[in-house]
Design brief:
This protein is an alpha+beta fold. It folds into 9 domains: 129 residues, DNA Excision Repair, Uvrb, Chain A (Irregular), CATH 4.10.860; 133 residues, no CATH class; 159 residues, Barwin-like endoglucanases; 127 residues, RNA polymerase Rpb1, domain 3 (Enzyme I, Chain A, domain 2); 167 residues, RNA polymerase Rpb1 funnel domain (Topoisomerase I, Chain A, domain 4, Orthogonal Bundle), CATH 1.10.132.30; 152 residues, no CATH class; 92 residues, Alpha-Beta Plaits; 132 residues, Gyrase A, domain 2 (2-Layer Sandwich), CATH 3.30.1360.140; and more. It is built from 54 helices and 46 strands. The strands form 15 sheets. A 6-stranded mixed beta barrel has the order 10-18-11-17-16-19. The chain is globular and about 145 Å long. GO terms for molecular function: DNA binding; DNA-directed RNA polymerase activity. Its EC number is 2.7.7.6.
């Protein structure tokens, strides 16, 4: 790990300022390739780098994937093919020239004169402009033919020739094409060209003309193909069976293998290289699996994220987080084994030299060597005395270090916090204070925390000054305080404020130890002699506040004067995370010190809560104190559910379909309407509108049922206490557990419905009735339902099987799985659009791309809740765009708690629509919002009548909507008539009820039909010369029975409109023409309203934008008019205004507007559109329940309209903004969407990306030009000032300090390393104390068990190698650790070891020992037994004597055996 760490921290050899995109030529491919691939196995061979089967790169010899970046190969084609990137451009070139004379074609003769181009008089294909026997031809690029080939196709571009199937073409028409054996099959009017034929057609074309489409002529054909390194295509997958890794290959590897030794035609080879061709199966899989990134995955977006944008760092950790209230708010508890494995970079100087020498001893015990960086290069030290001032040393993480943590996803500004390390004797998890969960948006149910260790001084300073917890006291999203009481501490604070809470002297003395203030005089003193004094809970809370703190919260009656709580009601609003809470006041007045007050309050409140014995049990779910009260509560719940059901039915009856029944206008008949509960329940589950009305009515009544919990519950109920405090619990959840579940409704449509009474008998009865109706054919065909039912039981009493099923289904159907990716998508897009916006030093907000001005000022509004004296303005270089983007997108994540429903608008989707409002729908319907004038509200119910009048005036009513029956009746013509009428007469029978409801007159309907008839010139399919339209009374039944026209006037007859055609004697009208042409033509006639308007909805606006109000409420009625697209959507607003000329006085036109932001901008200007976008965004975010500072919304609106119009939140919108700023950024556009297509487009255009953005810089190893690395100028006067000479940093570090003898203590807790990289662990905890000797270090960090392991390992290493064989890297490290215990270690090491080998002992010829090969070439032997015995003498002297006797006895036995052999 150390070697890899040093390799990754090598200084770069240069700084990348820009990247240029270009297409590789054949010479470029051969230059970067190390191997010409001639066999399929070489595609994944060891020559192309790691990973491979040999685990070693054959080109560079490296075994480390971090060192070997891979090597390219090349596949030579047997014949040249057309370059797949330029096939469409080649087709354009061929269409611009004559294929025979190679002259350039121009549409007009004037262009020919301007360019000086003369057509060849003798060219058969140029004369006559393609008219005659040699018609014009058209070249096109095709990759979707029957055989899935990619080729250039030429076709005859003449309709007459196509109709004659080519018989008019001359025999020599295709003779200009040279013969090619690889030419595909030929057709009469069509040829599939081979690459050779295309090349021959381009041979004599002007090169300057070709370069207008293709950058260079050598890019037209392709003779070879580059093969990327193995690391780009091959993945190592652990394989348990073989105890190793197996290789996994992607589609690119398989495609490359198919290109090797290819046998086929050139067009078939081109089809395999076509970049725009995606197999149909891939699109099918994408649609089937609903991949969130859709087709972008196939183009390499995932590879861009993982390889290019993703950065790897060894100085990180990821583990589960738990809570520890004993930790301070700015601390994080790190397990000791994790702290040992993490390294911190530190430069050696005189102040930290002694501490780092102590770390060197630990490193030598653990690794056997020390790795330091000296003057830019990595070196290995084997003695701590070799450490020099100025060296860069890597020590373990210890107390006091700064660590940057975040809990993914990092969705807002405070997701990343710098905390101070505190090493703890724990394992596997890290600890934080529970109050820090709020900014991290996490809890302790298995959430993971990511940690990052800064490796430079500048990084540590940035963490301390920018993202430390005391620097993030205010929430950058809402402006409120970031931290406040929560969970148990909030509950304790609420309970402490209750009247009657008293504490005796012993409790107060116990709690005073955790407070910063002295004990106040008791509130109650019974007798001075008995010492029976008591303090109130308010007095205890006053001890947590500073003495000079004043605060008031009028709504809860809270007054704090000089740090003393004077008064307060039994409410917790001033304690919660809300506006103007008490901790916000502390932060405003005391800044960083407020963390100490909050930490002390948490300790005191939690300690008091444990003293009271506060706990939760199942008895709290019973609510009532006895069974009698419980019985009364259940009865009230039953009555409440009955009232709720009546309210649902009544609200349902008020809807439009029951208006006639309620008003008494419904005529009595045999089939009179009967309304019962079962039918209402059935219809409620069919219609979304009815279901929504019923659910809303039920919720309104169910609130009264929930209030029974407060009425019947005991005073000490813990659930209600937590609910009132605002810490935990929910009144709805408590009601479901203890009282009843209430209305259970699905938010999505399902294939079944539910009975009104949830019981198994009712379910079976419903299924049986449905079966009977299916058998008899009377069951209505309903595709889906919206199941809803009332569960009268609770979890406490238990649910029957059907109730349990209903609850499970509705809860599961209410999930947000289908829209869970929406917040992430919005976050990603907003960050791409705004991450490069920064606050410039002149106070403006600019974009890194082109230094484009976005906003003139980024000042905080004056009406924010922060105190004016502590408002912080944006500093120069601050990434304000990223802060605003994260603040807005975080509201989308909070909206996931409100799932998408059919019954009500989704705040998440509403926010998505507002953010994407710049996306134009070319052929989609457009909507506008019409608001009513103030004059309308002066009358009673004026807005309601106005809404109905405008809706009735604008909404179109088709003739087909009022026609009940259409009949074609054969009527013999009247011989006395002068005109000859067709016998086929159309009868349109009108619905009497609709005519009466819509107040329609028959004569007006006839007028509209005549108007449509007179405008038949726009309908070429309808060619009737003359019509006669009349009306009469007729009976449908009698007409159908008689079969002839016997219409008579009757009171009970329907109105009938007849249409008779005047026909021509030479061309009589047929029945089919009347049925197929005339009837659909008239049924599509608009008889009321306007044809362009499809629908008019009456809606309610909760936040009134004007002075209008509805009965004193805060909202108003308005209309949403949906206008059908007619091909020119830009004029629909003017069309609507012209339609409304008769109702101009009713509508408030200054406030009415198109809903699409772009059309609003076209109609009223960009300023009005900006205001509308800002208000819509604020309203959408308010619906999510979040509060965001206006500066974030203002910057977002300015960013989306920086180009002068609102752009879409997509790749096209980003391209428009870059084009407006005259900046090219293909790299960022590729990272945003479809990288393959973006890179190809940039390469074909030979674009240069100057890497101006922050993402560009970070991806290519540079510092972004904003933030702490932003660019700024230092202006100074040259007079009297000279530039200082360069100072050697190493000499500077060696200089004497003012206080060189200062001791800096670093304490760490027990660092047991049982399963981590370190094999030595401290027995009683270790502390970085200066002045410790080597023996003390050895006793603290090395155990007998460790020494025994080293003994066994040394013996195995000594015996497994041959004589004079060098040790491997791992074994060498082990023996160096053993050598560290040698009595004469420095003498043995000399100037430093280069290698270690096994050899014969110089005195005992038959005994093995280790030999050190020094860097100067000398060799020194040593015995590992001396090292082990020396270590045991220090750690355990008794064990040392035992081990020495054991080895001595073994040696004596070996000597005796040798003596006997000699004898």
């Amino acid at each position: 790990m150390d070697d890899e760490f040093f390799y990754g921290n090598k200084a770069p050899s240069g700084v990348i300022r820009a990247i240029k995109f270009d297409v590789l030529t054949e010479n470029d491919i051969e230059k970067v390739s190390v191997l010409e691939i001639n066999a399929a196995g070489q595609v994944t061979g060891s020559t192309l780098g790691l990973p491979n089967t040999s685990d070693e790169c054959a080109t560079c010899g490296s075994k480390n994937k971090k060192i070997c970046e891979g090597h390219f190969g090349v596949i030579k084609f047997p014949f040249p093919i057309l370059h797949p990137y330029f096939m469409s451009e080649i087709a354009q070139i061929l269409n611009k020239i004559c294929p025979v004379c190679k002259s350039i074609r121009h549409k007009s003769k004037g262009a020919q004169l301007i360019f000086g181009i003369k057509r060849s008089i003798n060219c058969k294909y140029c004369s006559g402009n393609g008219v005659g026997r040699y018609p014009a031809m058209k070249f096109k690029f095709s990759s979707n033919d029957l055989y899935r080939r990619t080729a250039i196709i030429v076709e005859v571009n003449d309709k007459a020739s196509k109709k004659s199937l080519g018989r008019s073409l001359p025999a020599d028409y295709w003779d200009f094409l040279p013969y090619d054996a690889q030419q595909e099959e030929n057709y009469v009017n069509r040829r599939v060209l081979s690459p050779g034929q295309v090349t021959s057609l381009l041979n004599d074309v002007d090169p300057n003309f070709i370069e207008k489409y293709v950058p260079r002529n050598n890019l037209i054909t392709l003779n070879c193909f580059p093969v990327t390194p193995n690391c780009h295509r091959v993945t190592e997958v652990p394989y348990a069976i073989s105890n190793g890794n197996r290789l996994s290959f992607d589609d690119r590897t398989r495609s490359c293998k198919k290109l090797v030794d290819f046998r086929g035609t050139a067009n078939e080879l081109s089809s395999r290289l076509n970049p725009d061709k995606t197999p149909i199966s891939i699109f099918a899989d994408i649609q089937k699996k609903k991949v969130a990134e859709n087709a972008c995955n196939s183009s390499g977006l995932r590879w861009i994220k993982d390889v290019i944008l993703g950065k790897r760092n060894d100085s990180t950790f990821r583990t589960v987080v738990v809570g520890d209230p004993s930790l301070e708010l700015s601390e994080i508890g790190i397990p000791c084994h994790i702290a040992e494995s993490l390294q911190v970079s530190e430069y050696v100087n005189r102040q930290n030299l002694e501490k780092l020498l102590y770390c060197c001893e630990l490193r030598l015990l653990e690794k056997g060597q020390i790795n330091v960086c000296r003057k830019g290069s990595s070196i290995h030290l084997f003695k701590k005395e070799d450490l020099q001032i100025g060296d860069q040393f890597y020590r373990p993480l210890c107390d006091g270090d700064k660590v940057l943590i975040n809990r993914p996803p990092s969705i807002h500004q405070h997701s990343m916090i710098a905390l101070t390390v505190r090493v703890l004797p724990i394992s596997s998890v890290v600890c934080i204070n529970p109050l820090c969960c709020s900014p991290l948006r996490g809890d302790f149910d298995g959430d993971c925390l990511h940690g990052y260790i800064p490796q430079s001084v500048s990084a540590r300073v940035e963490l301390s000054e920018l993202v430390a917890l005391d620097k993030q006291l205010f929430n950058g999203q809402s402006g409120r305080n970031l931290l406040s009481l929560s969970e148990d501490s909030l509950t304790a604070a609420y309970l402490l404020m209750e009247d009657g809470v008293l504490l005796d002297v012993y409790q107060m003395q116990q709690l005073q130890m955790l407070c910063n203030k002295g004990l106040a005089p008791p509130a109650i003193v019974k007798s001075p002699s008995s010492n029976s004094s008591f303090w109130s809970g308010k007095q205890l809370f006053s001890m947590l506040l500073p003495s000079d703190f004043d605060y008031s919260f009028p709504s809860d009656g809270v007054v704090v004067s000089d740090g003393e709580l004077v008064s307060s009601f039994e409410a917790s609003g001033w304690l919660r995370d809300s506006d103007c809470n008490v901790f916000q006041g502390l932060v405003e007045h005391f800044q960083g010190k407020s963390l100490n007050f909050l930490f002390a309050a948490q300790n005191v409140l939690c300690e008091w809560l444990s003293m009271t014995g506060f706990s939760v049990s199942l008895s709290d779910l019973y609510l009532s104190s006895d069974s009698y009260a419980r019985k009364n509560m259940i009865e009230e719940i039953c009555y409440g559910l009955q009232d709720a059901e009546k309210a649902c039915n009544f609200k349902q009856l008020l809807l439009d379909c029951y208006c006639d029944f309620l008003s008494g206008n419904h005529e009595e008949s045999e089939n009179s309407m009967t309304v019962d509960a079962d039918s209402l329940n059935y219809e409620r589950q069919i219609s979304a509108a009815l279901s929504q009305a019923s659910v809303d009515a039920f919720r309104h009544v169910f609130r009264n049922i929930q209030s029974l919990a407060d009425k019947y519950a005991c005073t000490d109920n813990t659930f209600l206490a937590m609910n009132k405090a605002g810490s935990k619990s929910s009144l709805v959840r408590l009601a479901q557990h203890s009282m009843c579940l209430g209305m259970q409704n699905s938010l999505v449509r399902l294939s079944y419905r539910l009975p009104r009474h949830l019981s198994c008998a009712a379910w079976n009865s419903q299924k049986g009735l449905d079966s009977i109706q299916i058998y008899s054919g009377t069951l209505e065909s309903v595709q889906s339902y919206i199941p809803c039912a009332v569960v009268k039981s609770s979890f406490l009493t238990g649910l029957n099987p059907l109730e349990c099923f209903v609850h499970s289904v509705t809860i599961r159907a209410s999930g947000f799985s289908e829209n869970a990716d929406v917040p992430g998508t919005l976050t990603r897009r907003l960050m791409f659009f705004m991450r490069d916006l920064f606050a410039a030093y002149d106070g403006t907000v600019r974009n890194l791309y082109g230094n484009q001005l976005i906003q003139f000022s980024y000042d905080i509004d004056e009406n924010t809740s922060c105190d004016k004296s502590f408002k912080e303005y944006a500093i120069g270089g601050e990434p304000v765009g990223a802060l605003s983007a994260s603040a807005v997108s975080e509201a989308g994540y909070s909206a996931l708690d409100q799932p998408v429903s059919l019954l009500e608008a989704s705040p998440l989707l509403n926010l998505k629509n507002v953010l994407e409002c710049g996306s134009r729908k070319k052929n989609g319907d457009q909507s506008v919002s019409l608001f009513f004038s103030e004059k309308v509200g002066k009358q009673r119910h004026g807005f309601e009548y106005a809404a109905l009048e405008v809706k009735n005036y604008l909404e179109r009513l088709l003739f087909s909507k009022i026609v009940s029956t259409v009949m074609i009746i054969f009527t013999p013509p009247d011989s006395s008539s002068l005109e000859k009428y067709s016998p086929w007469v159309c009868h349109f029978h009108l619905d009497k009820e609709i005519l009466m409801r819509r107040k329609l007159k028959v004569h007006s309907i006839i007028d509209y039909l005549y108007q449509r008839y007179y405008s038949q010139s726009t309908e070429p399919k309808v060619g009737f010369t003359k019509l006669k339209i009349s009306s009469k009374k007729c009976s449908v039944d009698s007409t159908a029975k008689e079969g002839e026209d016997i219409c008579i006037d009757k009171e009970d007859s329907d109105d009938c409109i007849t249409v008779t055609i005047v026909e021509n004697s030479e061309n009589p009208i047929q029945l089919n023409s009347v049925r197929d042409l005339m009837i659909p033509f008239f049924l599509g006639t608009t008889i009321k309203g306007f044809m362009d308007i499809k629908k008019v909805d009456i809606l309610w606006n909760n936040q009134s934008k004007g002075t209008n109000s509805y009965n004193g409420s805060s909202g108003e009625l308005y209309l949403r008019v949906t206008v059908a697209s007619s091909g020119n959507t830009g004029r629909f607003w003017g069309v609507l205004v012209n339609h409304c000329h008769k109702i101009m006085q009713i509508i408030d036109w200054p406030r009415s507007h198109p809903d699409n932001i772009n059309y609003l901008s076209s109609a009223y200007g960009i300023d009005v559109a900006w205001q509308y976008y800002y208000k819509s965004l604020a309203s959408a975010i308010s619906d999510t329940g979040k509060s965001i500072l206006p500066k974030h919304l203002r910057l977002l609106a300015n960013s989306m309209s920086a180009s002068g119009e609102f752009v879409g939140l997509n790749a096209k919108g980003m391209a428009q903004q870059r084009q407006h700023a005259s900046v090219s950024s293909p790299f960022v556009q590729a990272c945003f969407s479809n990288p393959g297509r973006s890179f190809i487009k940039a390469a074909k255009s030979e674009l240069t990306d100057n890497l101006q953005g922050s993402l560009d810089a970070l991806a290519w190893g540079n510092c972004p030009s904003m933030g702490t690395s932003g660019l700024f100028d230092i202006i100074y006067s040259e007079k009297g000032h000279e530039v200082d000479k360069a100072v050697d940093v190493y000499k500077l570090l060696e200089a004497s300090f003012d206080k060189p003898n200062n001791k800096i203590g670093f304490h760490a807790h027990n660092n047991s390393s049982g399963k981590c990289g370190s094999e030595f662990r401290h027995k009683n905890g270790y502390a970085f104390k200066e002045g410790k000797q080597w023996k003390n270090i050895l006793r603290n960090f090395v155990t007998v068990n460790d020494i025994q392991k080293l003994t066994t390992a040394s013996r195995c290493i000594l015996n497994k190698y041959e004589i004079d064989e060098l040790l491997s890297e791992f074994d060498r490290s082990t023996i160096l650790r053993v050598l560290n215990f040698h009595p004469r270690r420095s003498e043995k090491l000399g100037i430093g070891p280069q290698d270690i080998k096994v050899g014969w002992h110089p005195k005992f010829k038959d005994s093995r020992c280790f030999h050190i090969v020094r860097t100067d070439g000398t060799v020194e032997d040593f015995s590992y037994r001396k090292c082990i015995l020396r270590a045991l003498e220090v750690v355990d002297p008794k064990m040392s004597k035992i081990q020495k006797k054991k080895w001595s006895a073994r040696d004596d036995a070996q000597v005796q055996c040798v003596t006997k052999d000699i004898e």
